[in-house]
Structures are given as structure tokens and as C-alpha cells.
């Protein structure tokens, strides 16, 4: 925590506050966090302690160094419940949950949550599974049903959940070959997804064009080894 605090920046804090960050956090650049993460990689007990601090930077770092396969379902649920803001709910939690054997089951439970950060974790975990798990090992029919659910539920979902749902359509269309055409159709049904991005210059990606760009001329993009960044 002292090492993180030493890397903190008031400038970065002001930027992250505009993106929805909540105290406590130090405002550490991701690039400045990577040398710390490299030293701590694989220290599972420390990752759990870092996340439990509730500090936004520490929660992100915990997601980088933790191994989701070594976590229990209860621990994963605790992470989803206590994510302080999207830096954790849309990155750290999905990273570890997508590595766990019960990741799909947890994700489909989380997307029903009335708590926005939990629902965001659910949709992003599903996106991570689509990007990393071989199609033969995915419940393709269930993913197809979830695309239908996005069409039905996205218009009335909270801003952050709409953003995560849009990302889910992109991930399915990019990485799951049997659902590529359905994802494009889903994107066209959704049209322009409007999300209040606050006082930032961030934009919601157009799902159809993003899918096509990500495939790079192929019918589907190669699966990723990890979604961590």
C-alpha cells in the first residue's frame, strides 16, 4: 500500500474522479503499477488482502496478481459485492471470475443483480469467457439467449450496465464463431447505444463496426490467452 501511495498522483485522481472513481484511492497510473505487479505476481494471499482494503488502486492491483482458479466461489462473490467502482467491477472481478470453473454460473447470477457494479462484473465476465474459452467448451446456446436478452433489456438498464452489455455483444461477435452473425444482427437491432459518460471524452463503441474491425478480415478473431491488461 505504501508503494502504491508513493506512485499516486493528484492529476490522475482528478481524471479518475471524472470517470466515477470513489475514495479511497491514490490515483496510480496503470503503467506505474505494472512494476509493482510484476514483483507480486502469484502472491495469492496478498492479492486477497489488497482487495479487502477497499482502495481502488489496490483492488485493481489485486486483480492483476491474483489467480482466479485458486479462489473460492465465496471469495469471488465477495469481490463482486465490494468492488468500489468500474476499475474493479469491469476489470479485476471479471479477470479472476473468468478463470474459475464456476465463472459462467456466477456471471449469469450477477447480471440479475440490482447493484450496478455487480451486474457490470457479470456482463464483463461473460465477455471475458467469450474471448478466452474455446467455443467447444462454451454453452453456445446460452450465449445466444443472452444476446436476445441484451436486445430486450439494454434500453432500460443503468448506464454502466448498458456499456457492459454493449461490450458483451462485441466480445461474442468477435470471438465466438457460431454466434458471429447473430451478434452483428443484435448490434443492428440495438442501434446507437447511448450512455452518459460524464465529464469525459470517452465514447461508446459502435458494436457492429468494432466487431468487424476486431476480426481483421477473418470470420472470427483468435481466442486470447488472457483479458488482463
Summarize the structure.
By secondary structure, the protein is an all-alpha fold. Helix content is 62%, strand content 0%.
Question: What does this 3D model show about the protein?
Answer:
There is one protein chain. By secondary structure, this protein is an all-alpha fold. It folds into two domains: 102 residues, no CATH class; 90 residues, no CATH class. It is 62% helix and 0% strand. It is globular, with a radius of gyration of 17 Å. The mean pLDDT is 96.
Low-confidence stretches: none
The oligomeric state of the chains shown is single chain
Strand-residue proportion: under 5%
Number of strands: 0
Give the termini separation: 21 Å
- Estimated radius of gyration: 17 Å
Mean pLDDT: 96
Going by helix content, strand content and strand pairing, the class is mainly alpha
Largest sheet: none
The residue fraction in helices comes out at 55-70%
Please tally the helical runs, counting DSSP H or I stretches of 4 or more residues. 13
Summed up, the domain count is 2
Amino acid at each position: 500500500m505504501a508503494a502504491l501511495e508513493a506512485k499516486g498522483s493528484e492529476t490522475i485522481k482528478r481524471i479518475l474522479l471524472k470517470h466515477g472513481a470513489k475514495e479511497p484511492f491514490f490515483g496510480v497510473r496503470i503503467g506505474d503499477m505494472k512494476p509493482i505487479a510484476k514483483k507480486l505476481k502469484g502472491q495469492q494471499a496478498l492479492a486477497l488482502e489488497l482487495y479487502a482494503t477497499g482502495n481502488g488502486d489496490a483492488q485493481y492491483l489485486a486483480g492483476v496478481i491474483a489467480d482466479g482458479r485458486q479462489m473460492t466461489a465465496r471469495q469471488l462473490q465477495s469481490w463482486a459485492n465490494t468492488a468500489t467502482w468500474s476499475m474493479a467491477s469491469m476489470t479485476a472481478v471479471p479477470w479472476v471470475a473468468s478463470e474459475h470453473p464456476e465463472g459462467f454460473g456466477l456471471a449469469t447470477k450477477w447480471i440479475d443483480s440490482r447493484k450496478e457494479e455487480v451486474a457490470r462484473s457479470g456482463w464483463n465476465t461473460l465477455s471475458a469467457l467469450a474471448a478466452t474459452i474455446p467455443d467447444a467448451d462454451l454453452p453456445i446456446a446460452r450465449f445466444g439467449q443472452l444476446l436476445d436478452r441484451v436486445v430486450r433489456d439494454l434500453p432500460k438498464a443503468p448506464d454502466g450496465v448498458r456499456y457492459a452489455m454493449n461490450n458483451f455483444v462485441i466480445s461474442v461477435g468477435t470471438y465466438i464463431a457460431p454466434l458471429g452473425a447473430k451478434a452483428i444482427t443484435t448490434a443492428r437491432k440495438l442501434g446507437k447505444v447511448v450512455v452518459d459518460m460524464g465529464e469525459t471524452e470517452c465514447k461508446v463503441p459502435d458494436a457492429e463496426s468494432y466487431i468487424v474491425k476486431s476480426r481483421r478480415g477473418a470470420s472470427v478473431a483468435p481466442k486470447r490467452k488472457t483479458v488482463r491488461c
